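Researcher: Please predict.
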Amino acid sequence: MTPLLQVEGLARQYRLPRQRLLGPPEQVQALQGVSFTLEAGRSLGVVGESGSGKSTLARLVVALEAPSAGTVRFEGRDLHALRAGELRRARAGFQMVFQDPFGSLDPRQPVARIVAEPLEAQRIGTPAERRERAGEMLAAVGLRTADLDKYPHEFSGGQRQRIAIARALVTHPKLIVADEPVSALDVSVQAQVLNLMQDLQDRFGLSYLLISHDLAVVDLVCDEIIVLYQGRVVESGPTERLLRNPEHEYTRRLLAAAAGGTPPSAHGGARAHAAAADSRPENSR
């Protein structure tokens, strides 16, 4: 069976501004030979420190940037080999949720227009049908259809990220790439949003590629993890095995830093914290 997402030998170089008039421009290797597979209905976490290449990987996977080498295949199709029209149609199958819930929503647009924007880009439905679908997605993320005519400034950070998730869901994608989706939120709100993501996965059969520096986040959501260090995958495997028994020294350092010197136990602690936070009202988002 063809994997939902297959990344092979992905590399990305960036050219820096010239330091000298006659000297060659320097290059930064953001990604080097990254490969992994994500099956339908599964979730893969990508972890690493700042500058390890996580966000670059996310942009390449959703074809917001072109790789220097390698391929990204979604349902067997090389995204970076598609023509513009083919890529636009393919985007209905994958969407992205960005880190900043304040910067990722257009403050000049009402929520109805923001959530329905992917439908408009795909030329799906009439304006009335797009508004109806937007209302359904708001309800799916725990907001009200009455919120459709409000503007982003009328919502808290946690609510804005729910709106961003609703926008990602509106085309009924199979894959959501989430780049640090809760890092800008308070801890209690983080847990609520992560639990929402799990509920939506069960309801819609989603796959997640979750980019995060927080091991507790990927522990809660992801079935497998890849660890990036200086643009390379240094370790990968099932979440529980990797967090309980990391093999690479860099992974052990990440675990030690996350736990204040003591590696965390896999799954239990993060899920207990999330369950406790989810039981509290979201009135401080």
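Model: The longest strand covers residues 27-38.
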